[in-house]
Design a protein that fits this description.
The complex is a heterodimer.
Chain A (H helix, E strand, L loop, with lengths): L3 E4 L2 E4 L5 E7 L12 E6 L6 E5 L3 E2 L7 E5 L3 E6 L8 E7 L6 E2 L3 E5 L1
Parallel strand pairs in A: 2-11
Antiparallel strand pairs in A: 1-3, 3-8, 4-5, 4-9, 5-6, 7-8, 9-10, 9-11
Chain B lengths: L2 E4 L3 E3 L5 E8 L8 E6 L5 E7 L7 E3 L7 E6 L4 E6 L8 E8 L8 E4 L3 E5 L2
Parallel strand pairs in B: 2-11
Antiparallel strand pairs in B: 1-3, 3-8, 4-5, 4-9, 5-6, 7-8, 9-10, 9-11
The chains are: A mainly beta, B mainly beta.
Amino acid sequence: DIVMTQSPLSLPVSPGDPASISCRSSQSLLHTNGFKYLDWYLQKPGQSPQLLIYLSSNRASGVPDRFSGSGSGTDFTLRISRVEAEDVGVYFCMQALQTPLTFGGGTKVEIK
Amino acid sequence: QVQLVQSGAEVRRPGASVKVSCKASGYTFSSYFIHWFRQAPGQGLEWMGVINPSGGGGTTHAQKFQGRVTMTRDTSTSTVYIDLSSLRSEDTAVYYCARAISIVATMGFDPWGQGTLVTVSS
């Protein structure tokens, strides 16, 4: 199974400040089609996860452009350019290259 | 709009079975695979398996659920089901269904169902 490792575990941020979350996979997520099969999700308190980024760098429909994703085959980053109060919650990365699909342990973003 | 609506919370004794439903609407049911995930209290997300709603309803599941999980679908009601047997306390979790945004690749799950809490307790 592909192991996903996220950091940090917790991320206190002041409103308007940037934030960055890292995710590392135990093997490359680069498919032969050239796409990297890495998604990012945000789970707000008491809610289901919501898709932010798919294929490493593509924003999902309706996601604000302050969210961006990047990465190589094994190292990925989610960036929030200016954190807003509504961005609090737990962020998960997930590899979709092969089953079983696996998730990072999550990063809890909170407002200072 | 595309929507997945799950059945309500369940309480079961250890050793029993539970069946959770996920009703799809707003799109062509047979075109998109549906995946199942779960999240134990205060924990991360875990993938359980996937069902192809079209054709013979083929499934793939995580090895750890071998022999205990069954996924089915009812095309007449656009509903998929997950049945988990031989329940133990560690199966206490919120169970989610989700649809990929693509019909050709496993990527980007949206939407997700609202979640179904399954509590296993004696």
